[in-house]
């Protein structure tokens, strides 16, 4: 993350405290809940009504990037919600310019609930959501997607079966092998596609796909053919899966800088919880959104990543 978090001041050492898309000028309001060496702080201890020194430093941080190292039970939710309150009530930030990103819907709901209790019922339309919810909201604004455009798990499996049926010379696969292949396609997307990334490297992707038991192994060439055909078929059906939400958002921003600029202007402050679970594509789009001001505040613990099987990259911290 050095390229993004390279302008912040150094904080206290950890030991001191533990189709042409829609017009971007008409971005709809999500209504507060959408479906460098960096400044570094370390927080420790249980959440409390009074912040400890590490929490206070993180909460009071204003502009520019900041990385907060926080282990289990250190009061991460407390720190994030207090920082949001501080940005609004003491820093003068517009509530709807603040974006808080989590990795699960439950975590987003909990974060929003804690913030509402903290602000004693005041209506601050802060945006809380998961990576996929945020990126889908952006795509929906641009391409007018509906819920029917999202592939269900059953539809993904049936689409893959259709692709495999049309391919020649592939080994037969049982349901377990299909699931592994779908996971490898997902890993490839999360690392940016077959042209980039770890699982995205053709040889690596095929090697990992080749771990499938019995006759399900694919060569690098076969995997890339299936990967391309799967994505092509989904696009022709105007369908997308959760991984596509991130990839398509990246492509949208690259193709239409004016749309990117509109969302950058909207989300001036971005906070990310459990940052150690981020993958390469989520990080790339996050980097785009944070520019040019880089008011990016991330909280994580690189010893606690639980999504490595999805391509999470704790080394980005």
Automatic annotation (TrEMBL):
<dbReference type="InterPro" id="IPR013986">
    <property type="entry name" value="DExx_box_DNA_helicase_dom_sf"/>
</dbReference>
<dbReference type="GO" id="GO:0003677">
    <property type="term" value="F:DNA binding"/>
</dbReference>
<dbReference type="GO" id="GO:0016787">
    <property type="term" value="F:hydrolase activity"/>
</dbReference>
<dbReference type="GO" id="GO:0005524">
    <property type="term" value="F:ATP binding"/>
</dbReference>
<dbReference type="InterPro" id="IPR027417">
    <property type="entry name" value="P-loop_NTPase"/>
</dbReference>
<feature type="region of interest" description="Disordered">
    <location>
        <begin position="1"/>
        <end position="55"/>
    </location>
</feature>
<dbReference type="InterPro" id="IPR014016">
    <property type="entry name" value="UvrD-like_ATP-bd"/>
</dbReference>
<dbReference type="Pfam" id="PF00580">
    <property type="entry name" value="UvrD-helicase"/>
</dbReference>
<keyword id="KW-0067">ATP-binding</keyword>
<dbReference type="GO" id="GO:0003678">
    <property type="term" value="F:DNA helicase activity"/>
</dbReference>
<keyword id="KW-0378">Hydrolase</keyword>
<keyword id="KW-0347">Helicase</keyword>
<feature type="binding site">
    <location>
        <begin position="70"/>
        <end position="77"/>
    </location>
    <ligand>
        <name>ATP</name>
    </ligand>
</feature>
<protein>
    <submittedName>
        <fullName>UvrD-helicase domain-containing protein</fullName>
    </submittedName>
</protein>
<keyword id="KW-0547">Nucleotide-binding</keyword>
<dbReference type="InterPro" id="IPR000212">
    <property type="entry name" value="DNA_helicase_UvrD/REP"/>
</dbReference>
<feature type="domain" description="UvrD-like helicase ATP-binding">
    <location>
        <begin position="49"/>
        <end position="317"/>
    </location>
</feature>
């Amino acid at each position: 993350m050095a390229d993004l978090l390279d302008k912040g001041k150094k904080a206290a050492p950890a030991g001191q405290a533990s189709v042409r898309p829609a017009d971007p000028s008409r971005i709809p309001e999500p209504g507060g809940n959408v479906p460098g060496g960096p400044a570094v702080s370390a927080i420790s201890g249980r959440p409390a009504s009074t912040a400890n020194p590490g929490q206070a430093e993180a909460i009071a941080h204003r502009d520019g990037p900041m990385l907060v190292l926080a282990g289990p039970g250190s009061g991460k939710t407390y720190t994030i919600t207090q920082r949001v309150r501080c940005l609004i009530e003491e820093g003068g930030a517009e509530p709807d310019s603040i974006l808080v990103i989590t990795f699960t819907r439950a975590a987003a709901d909990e974060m929003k609930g804690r913030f509402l209790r903290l602000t004693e019922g005041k209506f601050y339309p802060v945006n809380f959501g998961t990576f996929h919810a945020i990126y889908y909201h952006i795509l929906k604004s641009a391409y007018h997607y509906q819920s029917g455009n999202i592939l269900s798990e059953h539809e993904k499996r049936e689409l893959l079966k259709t692709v495999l049926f049309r391919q020649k010379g592939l080994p037969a696969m049982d349901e377990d092998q299909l699931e592994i292949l779908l996971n490898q396609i997902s890993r490839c997307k999360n690392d940016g596609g077959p042209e980039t990334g770890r699982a995205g490297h053709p040889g690596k992707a095929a090697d990992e796909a080749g771990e499938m038991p019995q006759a399900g192994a694919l060569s690098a060439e076969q995997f890339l053919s299936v990967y391309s055909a799967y994505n092509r078929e989904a696009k022709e059906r105007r369908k997308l899966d959760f991984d596509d939400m991130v990839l398509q958002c990246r492509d949208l921003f690259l193709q239409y800088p004016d749309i990117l600029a509109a969302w950058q202007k909207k989300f001036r402050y971005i906070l990310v919880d459990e940052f150690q679970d981020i993958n390469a594509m989520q990080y790339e789009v996050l980097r785009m959104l944070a520019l040019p001001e880089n008011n990016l505040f991330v909280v994580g613990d690189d010893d606690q990543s639980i999504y490595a099987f999805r391509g999470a990259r704790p080394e980005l911290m």
